[in-house]
Amino acid sequence: MNEIKVPGLKIFADGADVGEMKRIYKEGRVKGFTTNPTLMRKAGIADYEAFAKEVLSEIRDLPISFEVFSDEFDAMEREAQKIAGWGQNVNVKIPITNTRGESSAPLIKKLSSAGVFLNVTAILTVDQVKTVSQAISPKSKTIVSVFAGRIADTGRDPIPDMKEAARILKSNPNAELLWASSREVLNVFQAASSGCHIITVTNDILKKLPMAGKNLTELSLDTVKMFYEDARAAGYKI
Fold it and tell me: Residues 136-177: pLDDT tens digits?
């Protein structure tokens, strides 16, 4: 399957299954990859560095995000420098705060000024986007990951916040806004219309992307057929 294209938007794959990452890469379906410790734990990854280097042994020309995992900023900095050394296509994910709610802005500023390619993650408010925009160097590439899906999980419409985030970052040509925690195919088009540069999606959403624009009458018929075949296969009787 060829790369999926939505004008003005780069699609990244979100996951930590090495086999799936390599398969998606070979198919040329996406423009980059994101991971996080939660996804890695779910995938059964025991050795963080070994996992990263296995992925990077094959995926060398697309950006891949790997996250620090310490809670103290000095330890985060050491981890960030080590992760950055794994490859030129590596983005170092730094959470917007530590677990005590202390801002990562000073560390973000230090790493960005040193030229580290950052992905600032776990952002959920416009104020946090402003904080990041003031901390990052315009000379260094930075991904600003706003968790639009988690905003929506609270019953709030994330689109106004994403549009405001795009406006805040517009003056920095090296800052890219990423729509994170996607929940459905619709989010891809919402991200594009909100001014995002990137959306990261799970493999399940990637598989459903070819449905975009499908005729709804045909989809209705497909659904009826699915219910019929499943009931028949199960041998249900009334």
Answer: 999 999 999 999 999 999 999 999 999 999 999 999 999 999
Active-site residue, 53 included: no
Q: Per CATH, the architecture of 10-211 is what?
A: Alpha-Beta Barrel (3.20)
How far from chain centre, in Å, is Cα 84?
18
At 183, is the secondary structure helix, strand, or coil? coil
The answer to whether the CB of 129 falls within 8 A of the CB of 105 is no
Point out the catalytic residue in the list 22, 82, 93, 170.
93
Separation between Cα atoms, residue 81 and residue 51, nearest integer Å: 17
pLDDT in tens, 69-92: 999 999 999 999 999 999 999 999
Longest dimension (CA), the chain: 70
Helices 73-84/105-113 angle, 10° precision: 30
Burial label, 111 (beta-carbon count in 10 A; 0-12, 13-18, 19+): buried
Q: Which residues, including other chains, have CB under 8 Å from residue 95's CB and lie 6 or more apart?
A: 67, 68, 104, 120, 121, 122
Backbone angles phi, psi at 152, to 5 degrees: -65, -30
Count CB atoms within 10 A of the CB of residue 210: 11
